[in-house]
Design goal:
Blueprint (H helix, E strand, L loop, with lengths): L1 E5 L5 H15 L6 H6 L2 H14 L2 E8 L2 E10 L9 E7 L1
Helix pairs in contact: 1-3
């Protein structure tokens, strides 16, 4: 059974590692290898840390048996169309 919670600064390194592993697996043959090499755990940790600290996004984590299994990032809408106040921007699984 999955457990869900909002990410905190304590999750930054786990999110960065999760995303780096996901991108290296999913995009290995789709984007240039040099691009993937530049997207390190450290650069992603800085980026996710900035996002979490700024509070401009809501980042939801899913855990399966205590293991990080999915990351969803939402941000506040930039338009005035009807709908929820948040819209998804990234989902990694």
């Amino acid at each position: 059974m999955h457990e869900f919670r909002i990410a905190t600064v304590d999750d930054i390194d786990d999110i960065a590692l999760f995303q780096t592993d996901a991108w290296n697996s999913a995009y290995r043959d789709l984007v240039p290898a040099e691009y993937l090499k530049r997207m390190t755990v450290e650069t992603r940790a800085e980026r996710w840390g900035n996002r979490i600290r700024a509070g401009e996004r809501r980042i939801i984590l899913a855990f399966d048996g205590g293991r990080l299994d999915a990351v969803a990032s939402t941000e506040f809408r930039s338009d005035e169309l009807p709908g929820p106040p948040l819209e998804p921007t990234r989902v990694c699984h």
